[in-house]
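Tokens as discussed.
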């Protein structure tokens, strides 16, 4: 990890290329799958088959409209990777729930505050399909084979605002953002 920015690492660029390629492929394939299922249903047009097509049609329609957000997310990841170096955290403190701003099922990670190294900041992985891999591995200690996969967490970013976390390699990029605090908003509004 001797690069001035995470993006300077060839392995990071390869992992990001895989991420953005999957996002663009999804942008092409999910609408194609939706149209294919719709055409198949129209051709078959047997009323008892409607229930076979309803759920896949609904899901592919949902994914077709969700995919642009994944592309935007990939480019936001690249901006963070270009601005910050990787920092490696061995067995970072994590948990489930029990953190400010976390609900019962949310998983969190604790990172040092860059301004005050003695203090820490909590970053929350809210329940979402994109965070499922991380949520299954964090917050339970590092005793099983699955949880040992995140014994080491790579982080590029500023935990006060936003950061990309990755499993060693790097792989499994995930962007974490801090919600704007009410105090910060009030302080910014004061003259």
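Sequence:
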């Amino acid at each position: 990890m001797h690069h001035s920015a995470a993006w300077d690492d060839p392995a990071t660029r390869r992992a990001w290329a895989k991420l953005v390629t999957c996002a663009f492929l999804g942008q092409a394939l999910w609408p194609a799958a939706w149209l294919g299922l719709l055409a198949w249903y129209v051709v078959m047009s047997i009323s008892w088959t409607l229930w076979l097509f309803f759920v896949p049609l609904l899901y592919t329609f949902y994914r077709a409209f969700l995919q642009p957000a994944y592309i935007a997310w990939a480019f936001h990841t690249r901006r963070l990777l270009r601005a910050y170096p990787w920092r490696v955290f061995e067995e970072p403190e994590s948990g489930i729930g029990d953190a400010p701003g976390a609900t019962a099922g949310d998983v969190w990670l604790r990172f040092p505050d860059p301004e005050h190294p003695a203090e820490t900041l909590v970053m929350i992985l809210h329940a979402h399909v994109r965070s499922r891999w991380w949520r299954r591995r964090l917050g339970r200690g590092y005793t099983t084979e699955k949880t040992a996969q995140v014994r080491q967490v790579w982080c590029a970013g500023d935990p006060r605002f936003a950061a990309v976390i990755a499993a060693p390699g790097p792989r499994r990029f995930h962007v974490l953002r801090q919600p704007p605090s009410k105090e910060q908003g009030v302080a910014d509004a004061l003259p």
